[in-house]
């Protein structure tokens, strides 16, 4: 038995070190000053902190589509995402709903034929495209045939340069955006010259949405990605790996619950959540999460959540209830401590089945009674009225303790 097993019952769980994350956003308006879209961007949470372009883009996607939710971030309007060449080319995955996303290109250093080929593929994927900071030239002109939006920087061009560029792209650009608008005069000039959309601090200063990101085990993610590369891998094996990391399990549920994906299936198990995404989409999503991971060690609270979930699963199997649903009940019952937020608020963001939600919040039904008995053992509460045979619950708890320790040791 490992040192972790011997110590778990005697030590008090400490709050995990939650990563502070900031998501920037700025609205894009039409001529009548109605917001039409939002540009989302990465902002470091500490002075001097920087992220490479790939990680920054992945962090933005994770925040918008799996953590904060697109309804809160952009009222379910279309969002502009600045992405690196590796994402444009398809070398890195970007699991986003194409009907809500505009990929924004700023890197024009690669060869135009290579960039055109990559943009054509992203367009076939259903994504809209924007050329940011575009300046017309014979070299850049072919890009206009693919762009849905052309963003012209008023700060850089000046109003005279803006007019010149608009003349050059007129009849080729589908929608023109005057960006960097900082004064009433610049807005009026862009309007008079025929720009269709407007962005800048004169209209809407960039805002920062701060939230916390629960660290996920880099070891778990690496192991998952390795297995997902095997075409013969089965859902059962993927589920077993995901279940060893409560933070990752919670992230899968929140990703499914994102308003952008409009999932309407009430979830009763982790395996159901993974199967709804499908292995291909799940693999792309895990890659994105891995690019944002900052830790290779599970927290002590994650360990406690694993024990609770496994114990509930074992009790359910012994009393004829649904073991997978019981595991999920035990897991999500610990999310208030993991995310340092009220449990009602956390569960409101997850697409859980009614019986799972009721078991966690109201302790109702057989799943709720299982959770009560597991929590009673966890708290060592001799006064708590139990619903199932005490010796069986004790054995389940001990077996869960060993299982959780072995599962985490395997990731070292």
Question: What secondary-structure arrangement, pairings included, does this model have?
Answer:
Blueprint: H1 3-8, E1 19-30, E2 35-43, H2 53-67, H3 70-74, E3 78-82, H4 85-89, E4 101-105, H5 112-124, E5 128-131, E6 149-153, H6 154-169, E7 175-179, H7 184-193, E8 197-198, E9 207-213, H8 218-228, H9 235-242, H10 246-256, H11 270-277, H12 279-292, H13 300-319, H14 323-332, H15 335-339, H16 343-348, H17 354-362, H18 365-378, H19 390-409
Parallel strand pairs: 2-3, 3-4, 4-5, 5-6, 6-7, 7-8
Antiparallel strand pairs: 1-2, 1-8, 1-9
Helix pairs in contact: 2-10, 2-12, 6-7, 8-12, 9-11, 10-11, 13-14, 13-18, 13-19, 14-17, 14-18, 17-18, 18-19
Word description of this protein:
The protein has 412 residues and is α/β, with parallel strands linked by helices. The protein is 50% helix and 13% strand. It has two domains: 1-18 and 216-412, Hypothetical protein af1432; 21-210, EAL domain (TIM Barrel), CATH 3.20.20.450. It contains 19 helices and nine strands. The protein has an eight-stranded mixed beta barrel with strand order 1-2-3-4-5-6-7-8. The protein is elongated and about 80 Å long.
């Amino acid at each position: 038995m490992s040192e972790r097993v011997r110590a778990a019952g005697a030590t008090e769980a400490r709050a995990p070190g939650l990563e502070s994350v900031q998501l920037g956003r700025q609205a894009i308006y039409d001529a009548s000053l109605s917001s039409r879209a939002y540009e989302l961007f990465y902002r470091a949470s500490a002075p001097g902190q920087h992220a490479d372009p790939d990680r920054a883009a992945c962090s933005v996607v994770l925040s918008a589509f799996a953590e904060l939710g697109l309804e809160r971030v952009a009222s379910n309007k279309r969002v502009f995402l600045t992405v690196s060449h590796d994402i444009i080319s398809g070398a890195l995955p970007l699991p986003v709903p194409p009907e809500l996303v505009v990929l924004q290109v700023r890197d024009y250093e690669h060869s135009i034929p290579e960039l055109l080929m990559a943009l054509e593929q992203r367009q076939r994927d259903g994504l809209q495209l924007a050329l940011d900071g575009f300046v017309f030239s014979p070299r850049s002109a072919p890009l206009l045939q693919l762009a849905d939006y052309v963003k012209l920087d008023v700060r850089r061009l000046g109003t005279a340069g803006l007019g010149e560029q608009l003349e050059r792209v007129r009849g080729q650009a589908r929608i023109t955006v005057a960006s960097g608008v900082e004064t009433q005069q610049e807005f009026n000039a862009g309007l008079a010259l025929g720009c269709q959309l407007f962005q800048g601090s004169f209209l809407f200063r960039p805002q920062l949405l701060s939230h916390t990101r629960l660290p996920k085990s880099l070891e778990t993610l690496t192991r998952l990605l390795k297995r997902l590369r095997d075409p013969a891998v089965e859902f059962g094996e993927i589920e077993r790996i995901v279940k060893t990391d409560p933070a990752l399990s919670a992230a899968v549920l929140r990703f499914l619950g994102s308003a952008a994906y409009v999932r309407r299936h009430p979830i009763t198990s982790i395996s159901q959540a993974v199967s709804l995404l499908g292995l291909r989409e799940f693999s792309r999503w895990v890659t994105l999460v891995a690019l944002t991971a900052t830790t290779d060690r599970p927290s002590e609270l994650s360990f406690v959540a694993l024990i609770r979930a496994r114990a509930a699963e074992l009790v359910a199997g012994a009393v004829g209830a649904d073991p997978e649903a019981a595991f999920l009940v035990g897991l999500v019952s610990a999310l208030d401590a993991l995310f340092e937020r009220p449990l009602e608020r956390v569960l409101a963001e997850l697409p859980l089945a009614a019986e799972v939600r009721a078991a966690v919040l109201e302790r109702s039904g057989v799943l709720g009674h299982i959770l009560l008995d597991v929590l009673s053992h966890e708290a060592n509460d001799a006064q708590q009225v139990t619903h199932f045979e005490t010796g069986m619950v004790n054995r389940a708890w001990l077996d869960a303790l060993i299982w959780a320790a072995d599962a985490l040791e395997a990731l070292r």
